[in-house]
Specification:
The complex is a heterodimer of chains A (about 110) and B (about 120). Chain A is mainly β and about 110 residues long. Helices cover about 0% and strands about 60% of the residues of chain A. The mean pLDDT of chain A is about 95. Chain B is about 0% helix and about 55% strand. In chain B, about 35% of the residues are buried. Chain B starts with a strand and ends with a strand. The chains are: A mainly beta (about 110), B mainly beta (about 120).
Chain lengths: ~110, ~120
């Protein structure tokens, strides 16, 4: 069965304290892995798409990487405005449907 | 670019009434739209996949007669919750995959908060 697991479930960081969020996946065939940010009461905001192992994408303080079994979202020197839930989603071969992970709730303290 | 809107943003209704939620892709055409529901502090659960001009495909456990989906054009999909009950109260979110996209990402609407009294 295809599965996506995110860890940690929740993370509290001091402003400027870099860290990484993990998304582990077990799927029959990977079409793509997607990272989103979701603020409370809002829809997910697209961040990155990764397609193959070794691929990396960067945007401001965020960097996403992909291996054959997992993806990391690295947050460098986070700011309070980075506080949100970060969602990982996987698309398997033959479908455009997403399988979402449970998310990581990030809180960055000033 | 890639903006998706939903209307209404929130709705309160009485038990037994029907509620329609609209999902529009504002600056692109969407061959495929998706409907999700999300409970507090939980992730998104896919309800159905909607392709323009054809019947929606529902996920296992989702009642198609309860949640009616219509994808009448390349920019509009609607979800109607029929005979709503308090257990249908949730956050409903749609997403759309651009028709001309060389990539596979979905773009999400802002969500609709449904409260059934």
């Amino acid at each position: 069965e295809d599965q996506v697991t995110q860890s940690p479930e929740a993370l509290r960081l001091q402003e400027g304290e870099s860290s990484s969020l993990n998304c582990s996946y077990t799927v029959s065939g990977l079409r793509g892995l997607f990272w989103y940010r979701q603020d409370p009461g809002k829809g997910p905001e697209f961040l990155f798409t990764l397609y193959s192992a070794g691929e990396e994408k960067e945007k401001e303080r965020l960097k996403a990487t992909l291996t054959k079994k997992e993806s990391f979202l690295h947050i460098t020197a986070p700011k309070p405005e980075d506080s949100a839930t970060y969602l990982c989603a996987v698309q398997t071969s033959g479908t455009y449907k997403y399988i979402f992970g449970t998310g990581t709730r990030l809180k960055v303290l000033a | 670019g890639a903006v998706v809107s939903q209307h209404p943003s929130w709705v309160i209704c009485k038990s037994g009434t029907s509620v329609k939620i609209e999902c529009r892709s504002l600056d692109f055409q969407a061959t495929t739209m998706f409907w999700y529901r999300q409970f507090p502090k939980q992730s998104l659960m896919l309800m159905a996949t909607s392709n323009e001009g054809s019947k929606a495909t529902y996920e296992q456990g989702v009642e198609k007669d309860k949640f009616l989906i219509n994808h009448a054009s390349l920019t509009l999909s609607t979800l109607t919750v029929t005979s709503a009950h308090p257990e249908d109260s949730s956050f409903y979110i749609c997403s759309a995959r651009p028709r001309t996209s060389t990539y596979n990402e979905q773009f999400f609407g802002p969500g609709t908060r449904l409260t059934v009294l």
